[in-house]
Each structure stands twice: as C-alpha cells, then as structure tokens.
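Supplementary Note 3. Input sequence used for the single-chain structure prediction.
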Amino acid sequence: TACAAIALTASAGINAEEYVVGTGATYRPFEYETPQKELVGFDVDLMRAIAKAEGFDVKFINTPWEGIFATVDKGDRDIITGITITDKRKQVVDFSKPYFLAHQLILTDKSVKINKLSDLSKGSVAVVSGSAGDVAASKAFGKASTRIRRFDNTPLALEELNQGGVVAAIGDIGVLAFYARNNPDKHFNMTRDPAFEEQYFGIAVKKGNQKLIDKINAGLDKVVASGEYNKIYRKWFGTDAPKLPQ
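The predicted structure, written as discrete structure tokens, is reproduced below.
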C-alpha cells in the first residue's frame, strides 16, 4: 500500500549503532508531523520500541514516499516501514514478520452508500498513486480509467473527498478509519469490499540484508511479548491489537 514509508540508513554511533529513519510524514496515524515539526505516530513509536529492545538508536527525518524503494535499493536508506507486504514487492525488498493487520477501505460521502467498489456506477475515486488502493481501483474500473484520480499522498486524496471532488477514496483501513473518526461532522460511510483481502504491513530492507531483518524481527518479538506492542496499538487505535501471524 502506498502507505507511508519509514526509511533508515545506518551509521556508527559512539555507544550504539544509530539508524537514521526517514518517514513519509503524510500518513496519519502511522507517521506524520505535528505543528512543531515533530514526527509522531504508530510506526514511530513502534520503531523506537524495537530499537530500544535491540539496543540501537534511531533518528527520524521526513522522507517523501515517491521513490522510497529506490533509496533502499541504492543503499541510501536501509529500512522502510508502513509497507503492505505483496509478492511483487518481495521481488525488490526483504520483509520482516508482519507488524500490522490491514485491508483496504472505501470511504464515501454521507450521501453515497455502497456494499462493494463496483456499486459506484458514477463519479471519481481518489487513491494514492501506486498504492494498494490504486491497484483495487484499477482492477474495478481499468487502469487507464478517467474515473481514477491519483494523488501523491493520502492527505491530498482525502482532501479531494472532503471537498467533494470525488465520491470516494480508497486506502488502508488504519488511515481512513482514523480520518473518519477525526471528522465526525462529515458522516463519511466506511465500506469494506468483500473482495478486499486481509493485508499486512511489514518492515522492509534491501534484499539480502538478513542481519538487519533478524534484528528487527527479534525486537518486534520482544515488544509483542512484553505487551509494549499492544500498549502502542491502543494509544493510536483505541482497541487491543489483533494477534499477528508468525
């Protein structure tokens, strides 16, 4: 999914290895900037917890989503998070264990009620370019359909829905449900198309970097076992975390 991305590049710290974390900070509540330009969110908290559990340091820097995979491939970054695990992406990066259960969600104006994406007989749909939402819309309407409006990031896509420029937006449930809850006056309708499969976010590294994947997986296991993962999940989503697959 075109989610946001967190990218890390390693450098040797004095007391511990430090990873510079680049976040695509337009992806509430996973990662975004406060008015004070502080990077916060579920992914930020989780990455800090994993780092603490494994004894390395992290430093966060805002990094655009576009081209994030290329930065990992070139070695400019070492890690990206907030990435939907897909077979296609497994060809270009190696993934950690899943760390977030997700699926696509359709958000529609209060006047539009549907049961599945194909029920949208007219009007345009906003998606983030190259995201899982884009894939779903392309499958339903055709990749070249003029009904699909593609945007560089999630806030732009949701703003288009908010302003009435499109009848629906498709994106990750964590992001869209968070947006709907924070805009109750809009009375958005939320729909999960039965064809939308369960998906998982993973932490990705350059192919072949097994040492780093092992470190991330070990840290994730520790924060799940200690209850820290559930604490972070409740902070951002208000419910207990679902059990993650191994």
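Residues 95 and 124 are 34 Å apart (CA to CA). The first helix runs from residue 42 to 54.
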